[in-house]
Design brief:
alpha+beta, five-stranded mixed beta sheet, four-stranded antiparallel beta sheet, 2 domains, C-type_lectin-like, Mannose-Binding Protein A, Chain A, CTDL_fold, globular
Length: about 300
């Protein structure tokens, strides 16, 4: 009888096992589910070049959609028609067939930007698009267009221990949280949205112990390409722009002051509000402390999800 009682306590107190997206038909908050294809989709309305979009889909645990069935085209059309000002084309993955070009012969042939990292042949190549009328055609890859990501429900990632719709989170037992540095750079608002979509949030430092744990993570992971600087990482705090000469007050995404959150150590001479434009908070790779930066500049960022066992 005593053993039975202990077994019941273990079951009630042990960590819960959540169903996968394949079972729940739920995924990231920015993806929609299609019952007929048993897959999740997201239409990115920001314009990107053709060679950039596959990586961005992969960051979200998906792939650039291959228009293999008419159901995929219908799903894209239903999302695309909500944005009549986006133009007429959406990047999709190659389906293995030859398609006509959607572009007339250009009057001016553009040359690659010397700072662009893509080879010359990539710059002048053609990538597949779907038109507003549902046709699959090709378009110059250097154009900046919206794109659509897709992941089959059976392949949608879910980290059961951390409770997030993503891979590559690292659980730090000493502070009871999971952390991840996505392999992409975003402005603060988009970084915030990315963490939220996965079921996490931009990291909020609550103690010196947590700062040291996160500092170790950012110093052992490879740099994320494309950041304004590689040694700052967006975190979950920011300030409203200063008005009437009043000092800025930085607060976390949970509306706490840094002191209320439990950690408020800035790097030397920070925050300095350079050019009166630095309203967003970052962690400085060298010492793990805080620094202010311009919110619209792209930086790497850290997502966090607390684990309650």
């Amino acid at each position: 009888m005593e053993l039975y009682g202990l077994f019941v306590i273990f079951i009630l107190c042990g960590p819960a096992t959540a169903p996968s997206p394949y079972q729940t038909k739920q995924y990231r908050s920015d993806y929609v589910y299609n019952k007929k294809t048993d897959a999740f989709y997201k239409l990115h309305i920001e314009g990107k070049r053709g060679w950039q979009v596959q990586k961005l889909c992969e960051v979200e645990g998906a792939k650039l959609m291959v228009p293999t069935t008419q159901l995929d085209i219908i799903q894209l059309h239903s999302m695309f028609k909500r944005f009549p000002d986006l133009g007429n084309y959406v990047w999709v993955a190659e389906d293995g067939h030859n398609h006509e070009s959607a572009e007339e012969q250009p009057l001016i042939v553009l040359t690659p930007n010397p700072e662009d990292s893509q080879p010359r042949d990539t710059w002048h190549s053609a990538c597949d698009v779907v038109t507003r009328t549902g046709e699959v055609e090709t378009y110059p890859c250097y154009r900046e267009l919206p794109f659509i990501c897709k992941v089959d429900a059976r392949d949608a990632p879910y980290d059961n221990h951390c409770g997030v719709y993503a891979r590559d989170y690292e659980y730090i037992e000493s502070v009871g949280s999971c952390y991840k540095i996505p392999r992409v750079v975003y402005p603060w608002n988009q970084a915030y949205a990315e963490c939220q979509a996965e079921g996490a949030h931009l990291v909020v430092i609550n103690s010196e112990a947590e700062m040291l744990a996160v500092k170790n993570i950012i110093n052992t992971k490879p740099s994320v390409l494309g950041a304004t600087t590689s040694y700052f990482f967006f975190a979950g705090f920011r300030a409203e722009p200063a008005q009437d000469g009043k000092p800025k007050v930085f607060k976390t995404i949970f509306n706490q002051t840094l002191e209320e959150a439990g950690y408020s150590q800035w790097s030397p001479n920070e925050p300095n509000n350079f050019d009166n434009k630095e309203d967003c908070g970052t962690l400085f790779k060298n010492d793990g402390n805080f620094n202010d930066v311009i919110c619209s500049h792209p930086y790497a960022f850290i997502c966090e999800k607390e684990v309650h066992l």
